Amino acid sequence: MTSEDTETLQSLETDLRVAHARALEHHIAHVGSVDDYFVSEDKGDFEWKCSEAGDWSVYRCGEKDCPQQWHTVAYAVDAGRTAGKRWVEVRSCDEEGDWDSDGSYDERTGSVPEDWPDFARWATGTHEYFHGWGLYWIDAARTGKDPCSQVLGDWRVAQGGKFATWVEFCLDAVRSNIKYLLMGTGETSARASTNEEGATA
User: Fold this and answer.
1) Does residue 79 contact residue 87 with C-beta atoms inside 8 Å?
2) pLDDT, tens digit (0-9, with 9 covering 90-100), for 149-163
3) pLDDT tens-digit profile of 103-126?
C-alpha cells in the first residue's frame, strides 16, 4: 500500500464514521411509533413472514481464536396482528444456514420493549448493513484478504478493468457504502459534515 493509499484510507475511515452517524441520526428522527409501523385502514388480523432472509450483512467477531474474524449474517423481519395483538420478530440466518430469533415486539405475550424506536431502529434500519461492509472493505484494503469471499471472479476485470490495484478496488467499495449510507439523509458527502480535524459538525 502506498503512502497515498494510506492517506486516502484514513480519510475514508473518517467519512464512513461520519456517514454512519448521520444515517443513524436520520433514522432515529424518522423511525416513528408502533402505530406508524402498523398503519393501515384494515385493522384485521394478518401474518407476514419472510420466505427467506435479506442480503448478507457482515460483522467482525473479535474472537482471539477465530482466524477468519469476519462473518456474514442475514436477517428477516416478520410481522402480524393476531386477535388484535401486534407482533414483530427479527430472525437471523448464519453462514451455516442456522436460524435464530434475535428479538421481538409481541403484544400477544406482553413481550414489549420499553423503547419501541430503539427496537424499530435496529429491526428496520440499513445503516448497520452499509457501515459493516464499509469496515469490511477497509480491512480488506489493509490486509489484502477477502475472508468472506465477496469478490466473484477476478477483481482486475471488475467495472471494465478500471482498478490497477487491489487497494483501489477496496477503496471504491468503501466509497460506495458511504454513498449508500448518505442516501435519504439529504447529504451527498460525509466530508461536508466534518471539520478539518474530522469531528462531526
Assistant:
1) yes
2) 999 888 887 777 888
3) 899 999 998 887 877 787 777 778
pTM reported for the whole predicted model: 0.85
Q: Are strands 57-60 and 85-94 parallel, antiparallel or unpaired?
A: unpaired
Q: What is the structure's pLDDT at 191?
A: 66
Contact predicate 22/191, CB 8 Å: no
The CA distance from 169 to 188, in Å, is 21
- Amino acid at residue number 55: D
Sign of the torsion angle spanned by Cα atoms 101, 42, 26, 57: positive
Strands 99-106 and 85-94: antiparallel
**CB-based contact 16:173 (threshold 8 Å):** no
Provide the β-strand partners of residue 90. 77, 103
What contacts 7, CB < 8 A, 6 or more positions away?
none
Joined grid coordinates for residue 90: 427479527
Using CA atoms, how far residue 97 sits from 49, 73, 75, in Å, is 17, 9, 12
Helix (H/G/I), strand (E/B), else coil: 105 = strand
Q: 3-class SS at 91?
A: strand
